[in-house]
Specification:
It is a single chain. With 373 residues, the protein is α/β, with parallel strands linked by helices. It has four domains: 14-97, Chorismate Mutase Domain, subunit A (Up-down Bundle); 102-184, 3-Layer(aba) Sandwich (D-Maltodextrin-Binding Protein, domain 2), CATH 3.40.190; 187-262, Periplasmic binding protein-like II (D-Maltodextrin-Binding Protein, domain 2); 289-369, Alpha-Beta Plaits, CATH 3.30.70. The protein has helices at residues 13-48, 62-75, 82-100, 114-123, 135-143, 163-170, 206-211, 213-219, 231-238, 250-255, 303-313, 346-358, and strands spanning 104-108, 128-132, 149-156, 160-161, 175-183, 187-190, 201-205, 224-228, 244-248, 259-262, 272-279, 289-297, 318-325, 333-340, 359-369. The longest helix has 36 residues, at 13-48. The radius of gyration is 24 Å and the shape is globular. The record marks 273 as: Essential for prephenate dehydratase activity. Residues 292-369 form the ACT domain. It comes from Cobetia crustatorum.
Length: 373
């Protein structure tokens, strides 16, 4: 290729465009080669009978994908940020996996929610998604085998845990196979019939209204705040209403073609929500993992000390401890605990065995790759 330069020895715009075209052609060939390798992987797995606990061939391997994305982020030379580079590779991996077997998943709907955004962040746009009206319906859909995975919210950094999700685990045999941490940005949205100065009603989910309370107090102190079932429902409702606005995210704004009057109105700049991926198979260690358990303790003096002692002894990093009322009787409680490490790690296995000696029941919800922002 001739290297035509300007009078000052600089590369011209035409030169750069030719170079970009050549790079695009190289990328196209490499992505196609990767897709062909994915097809060969599927053939090898089918021939080898690589089945999981559910008796099905395991095309999707959470631990493997986590390892690939971590490696991509660690070796990323820039100028694109590591998270953006991981998102691009996630879409390539999603499309390649769809050649083997498209992933089917249910999520807490409706369309346009942050849960759908988390599902796409984790599985990519090639996954086949199905919105459900309630968290327990997501669990039932996975348990029935209608989908392979479910995506449900479990906690927000400012508003705390989602109790419906914790309660659903208490009566389910499903396992946690992954987590997604999503940075939450709320926007004030209006339809074509509303101007900012005429806003008299603001719709959103109760948690989103709470996460934007200070901003609303400062900018719309007299507007009526109306809690609805989801941010996406708020966006749908204001699409045709007069003098109303919705607090929702980018997906809802795009889905319902709403105008952003104000962006990023959340009170906490590091507002994030953690989502869990649920399925029916255990996940092998990825090298950077987390384990979630439910523990029922006997109602006796020193029970909380007995619960925490094995973790302290083995220097296990606890990342979350929550209590919920037990279904076995009044004033009995169970503990939901998250900690770093995989259940197959010798130190974690020892800790779990120590817990079983003092607890009435220990249920491992799953060990899974640690999610990243």
């Amino acid at each position: 290729m001739s290297d035509s330069r300007g009078s000052a020895g600089q590369v011209t715009l035409d030169d750069l465009r030719v170079r970009i075209d050549a790079i695009d052609c190289e990328l196209l060939n490499l992505i196609s080669e990767r897709a062909r390798c994915a097809q060969q992987v599927a053939e090898v797995k089918l021939a080898a009978g690589d089945v999981g606990e559910d008796g099905q061939v395991q095309f999707y391997r959470p631990e493997r994908e986590a390892q690939v994305l971590r490696r991509i982020m660690a070796s990323n030379p820039g100028p694109l940020k590591g998270e953006e580079m991981a998102r691009l590779f996630r879409e390539i991996m999603s499309a390649c996996l769809a050649l083997e077997q498209p992933i089917r998943l249910a999520y807490l709907g409706p369309e346009g929610t942050f849960t759908q955004q988390a599902a796409i962040k984790h599985f990519g746009d090639s996954a086949v998604t199905k919105p459900m009206a309630a968290i327990d319906e997501v669990f039932r859909e996975v348990e029935a085998g209608a989908v392979q995975y479910g995506v449900v919210p479990v906690e927000n950094s400012t508003e705390g845990v989602i109790n419906h999700t914790l309660d659903s685990f208490m009566g389910s045999q499903l396992k946690i196979s992954g987590e997604v941490v999503l940075r939450i940005h709320h926007h004030l949205l209006v339809g074509p019939n509303t101007r900012r100065e005429k806003i008299s009603r603001i719709y959103s989910h109760a948690q989103s209204l709470a996460q934007c309370r200070k901003w609303l107090d400062a900018h719309f102190p007299h507007a009526e705040r109306i809690a609805v079932s989801s941010n996406a429902e708020a966006a749908r409702q204001v699409r045709t209403e007069w003098h109303s606005a919705a607090i929702a995210g980018d997906m809802a704004a795009k889905l319902y073609e709403l105008e952003k009057v104000e962006e990023k109105i959340e009170d906490s700049p590091d507002n994030s929500t953690r989502f869990l991926i649920i399925g029916d198979s255990s996940v092998p260690a990825s090298g950077d993992d987390k384990t979630s358990i439910v523990v029922a303790m006997r109602n006796q003096p020193g029970a909380l000390h007995d619960l925490l002692a094995p973790f302290h002894k083995n220097q296990i990093d606890l990342t979350r401890v929550e209590t919920r009322p037990s279904r076995s009787g009044a004033w009995n409680y169970v503990f939901f605990i998250d900690f770093r490490g995989h259940r197959d790690d010798p130190l974690i296995s020892e800790t779990l065995e120590s817990l079983r000696q003092c607890a009435a029941d220990v249920k491992v919800l799953g060990s899974y790759p640690v999610g990243v922002l």
